[in-house]
Amino acid sequence: MNSDSNHSPGVSKCVEAAKILSAEREEALKRAQTMKFDTIAVHGLYTVEEALRRNRGSVIEPLYLSTSQAYADADELEAALAYLTPSWCYTRIANPTTQYLEWTLALLEGYRTGYETSCLVTSSGMSAIAAAVDPFLVKQKSGPEEINFVSSIQIYGGTYQYFSVRKAKEQGIEARWVQNPDDLEEWKARIDGNTRFLYMEMPSNPQQSFADLKSLVDLAHSWGIPFIIDSTCATPALMRPIEYGADVVVHSLTKSITASGLAIGGAVISRRPIITNVKNDNPNFKENFAEYVKLWPFRDTGPAASPVNALFALNDLRTLRSRMELVSRNCQIVAGYLAGHDRVSRVDYLGLPACRLHEVAKKYMKLVDSDDGSGREVNCYGHLMSFTVDGPPENARKVFDSFKLIHRATDLGRIKSLATIPAISTHLQQGEEVRRLANIPPQLIRLCVGAEHPDDVIADLKQALAVL
């Protein structure tokens, strides 16, 4: 909360009353931080006390559909809109249902990392990426005219468009692309004193790109800049980048976290504090980045999540760990089958020992709170993979069109298995040359394995490949 100096005595009373609520929330936070991942996913900060005092005993977090909050008097209104007291005031800025989701996501992403975290939930994964990177790309009054950022080229097609067209082409901010993100020297060669951040999607969609996360974080911090990571496909159940010092984590909540496929959303989770070379007069910019974005730039641009979508995401989140364990196991089996098929020339799945990036992924991708019998967490690699069909691009289309169980869709992370051909869908706008650099051939099929029995998914793949 901000200082309440220069405000009326009535406002000061509101601030004092709010301190009691803040103390209760802080106590609930400390209690939650002692709990296991699954317990946090189920309860978040929605305590028994919160249910009884504020929500008439509702066991499940209520859905607040109202667009705005009413206030008792002018003093309470002033205190709220000056950010002197906890308030949600207007759903474009905040909403109680959305806040329950934000608190839970912050706790899960920060789970046993040793860092405090904060979260902003947005209307989509792309709005989360924009909210995460834009504050670092503001040109400084006394700074250089030419600024840049460095990103892996192996990223979601929409992210590439945002970086290459909206930032580079339209705003003149240079996007410097790393073609081989597991090569630290390639990152080093693209950084200079005008670089604002490093960005990577890990594991990437659809190529399963991966790198030594800690080395990249250390490299970014050696230049005084943040490391921003899209960890959508891992989710905090399999990897929490903040544990290794990552500054900002973004998620498309639409994907694995909201596996039901009933909602769209995004999230920005920041470590407290972040590293940055950007000068900003607001102390929260470094100390509490996600909250800064929420209370200032975000309130002006307005990409707020629908409370209905927030509730759907919150409910799916409760079973995240067990669900990611199941779909990872299923995907491992399916990937093994495809790796042995004579009409498949390549399988990209980090769980396969033959995968070039298997060993580095093995260091980081582990099922939280699991035990292999010797006290070590069990490796799990998620439910996204890709495979390249042997022969010309027409062969991939024939196989794709023959699926009977697997849905043909551009989505991923569903409880149902889904497939797409990225070259003609999610990465179409990149163009052939960029797809070549990003290792996305036209024969590549992206497959996200769901919760079906893997034998049935394999049977569908078998009959589809049999058309060749």
Layout of strands and helices, then pairs:
Layout (H helix, E strand, L loop, with lengths): L8 H24 L4 H7 L4 H7 L19 H8 L14 H14 L6 E7 L2 H9 L14 E5 L4 H15 L2 E5 L5 H7 L4 E7 L11 H10 L4 E4 L4 H4 L9 E5 L13 E7 L11 H4 L1 H7 L1 H5 L5 H11 L2 H20 L4 E5 L9 H7 L19 E6 L3 H9 L5 E2 L9 E3 L11 H6 L6 E5 L5 H12 L3
Parallel strand pairs: 2-3, 2-4, 4-5, 5-6, 10-11
Antiparallel strand pairs: 1-7, 6-7, 8-9, 9-12, 11-12
Helix pairs in contact: 1-4, 2-5, 5-14, 15-19
| Helical content class | 25-40%
What is the tally of helical segments? Answer: 19
The overall number of domains is: 3
Mean pLDDT: 95
The share of residues in extended strands comes to 5-15%
* CATH uppermost class of the largest domain: Alpha Beta
Distance between the termini: 64 Å
Strand order of the largest sheet: 1-7-6-5-4-2-3
Number of strands: 12
Quick one: overall form? globular
CATH architecture identity of the largest domain: 3-Layer(aba) Sandwich
Task: Output the CATH homologous superfamily of the largest domain.
Answer: Type I PLP-dependent aspartate aminotransferase-like (Major domain)
CATH topology of the largest domain: Aspartate Aminotransferase, domain 2
Outline the low-pLDDT stretches.
none
What does the largest sheet look like?
Answer: 7 strands, mixed
Which structural category fits the helices and strands?
alpha/beta
Q: Round the Cα radius of gyration to an integer and report it.
A: 23 Å
